[in-house]
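Annex B. Sample input.
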Amino acid sequence: MTKTIADRRGPWAAAALLLACACAASAAPAPPAPGGRLAEYEASQRLFGRKGILEPLAELTERWQYTDQRLSRSLMLGSYARVERHLKLGAFYRLQYGARHDDDWERDKLGRWGWRDTIDRPEHILVLDATPRAELPGGSWVASLKVRLERNFSQRRTILRAQPELAWFWMEGLKPRATVFVRQETDFALDFGETSVWQRWYYLASLWHARPALSLGPSLALREEVWSTSGSYRSVSGAGPPGYQTLYRAWVLGFTAILRLR
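Annex B, continued. Sample output.
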């Protein structure tokens, strides 16, 4: 019986299929993200001082995040300077542990893909801050725009953060009793990743001014973070461009305590 062309190419087709399967098996998996929003938790403690135009700040933040509720910690020290009634400038140093970046998605010695354990990895960050604000008609509303430039010297990455905010003050005479904030934050990736926006946050928060020096309050935020192709992923045969862009989303329940020293 005469073989058809397809029959004569059978061995070659089988070999090509096996090669394709092998390439697919060696291709790196993109980091998975949950279909909905996960719950994350954050606690923040801030200590403010006052010395002339200077407002020294110490801020300790802890966040339990991602699918395994991994702990992230940061300590920020520095000072604001009120250079004009409606403008504050600030410079800070932040030490953080447990942050996750794109290149933390990697393959271990056994060939398994996952996120690097960064709980004990220190990162050193310089933060420059400019915060103009304006009182709106009515006397109870204040609008502000916080702009921050953050340079992570450990990871060699730079973020430009824009944070518009609208605050309403509940007053008793000349003293504020509570404040409600609506805030949006966009973090622009200036020298890393494959998207211009790395994170977006949408906040609703409040503070109860329990004492002239003490304020306490809860917050609720929607967080969106983009993971883009890691260097480890690109180094694997068959896992080249276009890579991946994974959107991670979460609810962040927070609580803030602020102590002001006069």
